[in-house]
């Protein structure tokens, strides 16, 4: 976003220090001018978008910087500009994981606060999140701390740019699972990132609700759409949000039903069963 040049430089330094083959890097200015960028061992490309396309739109622009669907590379690491790779073997671990399992499509890193080492519960992409140091197969991933095989993007398409913010990773994850790809949360692959609250974004409550509806409308078999959204409506009410937050959430929920959600490609029932066996059926 152009407002964290020191953090960006620290992230790029941590990427340059990774063991193994040098990593090719692209930095996307998402509606903001880029600062002066350093030279990196694997080369550095830059993209300055004339307007803010949102999180998925910006990441899609980064993918296309490596050719259509990222065809010039085998996998792409998505790293938030205020993150940092504290270990030098993260890229090598990614290479090893993708090489060992040809059906593995997406890796989700563990996000830890650099000062406390704490991983927020919301950053563990599974229901049983009490132990963030346990790796496991999962049904979604963390967009700003992840690695995606470009063959996944070529097969199922990019992140949904129209989402702008919230749930775009889950949309891609569900499509990848439906195509037979696997997703793993790897606790040994760490991204340092300061502890934050998602509600710091002004659009948080509206877009979380709107995109939740879009996610269901685009991807779920029709019988599961009201079940999934009914569960999330009840969960939201049970959390007792403030009146302004609830008003924004309900407005976004309505918008999700009344606005176009993009192409509908409902997942197969065997994918629903696969997700249930992984511990997170697509009703919660």
From TrEMBL:
This is Glycosyltransferase family 2 protein. GO terms for molecular function: glycosyltransferase activity. The lineage of its organism: Bacteria, Bacillati, Actinomycetota, Actinomycetes, Kitasatosporales. Keywords: Glycosyltransferase, Transferase. InterPro entries: Glyco_trans_2-like, Nucleotide-diphossugar_trans. PANTHER family: GALACTOFURANOSYLTRANSFERASE GLFT2, RHAMNOSYLTRANSFERASE WBBL. The keyword Glycosyltransferase applies. Pathway: Cell wall biogenesis; cell wall polysaccharide biosynthesis. Gene3D superfamilies: Spore Coat Polysaccharide Biosynthesis Protein SpsA, Chain A. Belongs to the glycosyltransferase 2 family. Residues 3-154 form the Glycosyltransferase 2-like domain. It comes from Streptomyces alkaliterrae.
């Amino acid at each position: 976003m152009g407002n964290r040049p020191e953090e960006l430089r620290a992230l790029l330094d941590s990427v340059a220090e990774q063991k193994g083959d040098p990593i090719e890097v692209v930095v996307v200015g998402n509606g903001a001018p880029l600062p002066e960028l350093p030279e990196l061992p694997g080369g550095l490309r830059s993209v300055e978008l004339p307007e803010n396309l949102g999180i998925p739109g910006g990441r899609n622009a980064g993918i296309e910087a490596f050719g259509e669907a990222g065809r010039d590379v085998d996998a792409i690491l998505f790293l938030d500009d205020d993150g940092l790779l504290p270990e030098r073997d993260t890229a090598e671990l990614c290479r090893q994981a993708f090489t060992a399992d040809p059906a593995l499509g997406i890796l989700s890193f563990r996000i830890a606060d650099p000062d406390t080492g704490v991983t927020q519960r919301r950053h563990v992409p599974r229901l049983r999140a009490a132990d963030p140091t346990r790796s496991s197969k999962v049904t979604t991933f963390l967009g700003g701390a992840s690695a995606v095989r470009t063959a996944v993007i070529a097969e199922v398409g990019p992140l949904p740019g129209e989402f702008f913010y919230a749930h775009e990773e889950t949309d891609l994850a569900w499509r990848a699972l439906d195509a037979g790809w696997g997703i793993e949360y790897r606790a040994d692959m760490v991204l340092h990132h300061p502890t934050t609250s998602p509600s710091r974004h002004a659009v948080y409550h509206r877009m979380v609700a709107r995109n939740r509806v879009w996610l269901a409308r685009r991807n779920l078999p029709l019988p599961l759409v009201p079940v999934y959204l009914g569960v999330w409506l009840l969960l939201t009410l049970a959390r007792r949000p403030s009146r302004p937050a609830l008003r924004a959430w309900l407005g976004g929920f309505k918008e999700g039903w009344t606005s176009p959600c993009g192409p509908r490609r409902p997942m197969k029932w065997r994918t629903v069963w696969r997700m249930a066996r992984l511990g997170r059926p697509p009703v919660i």
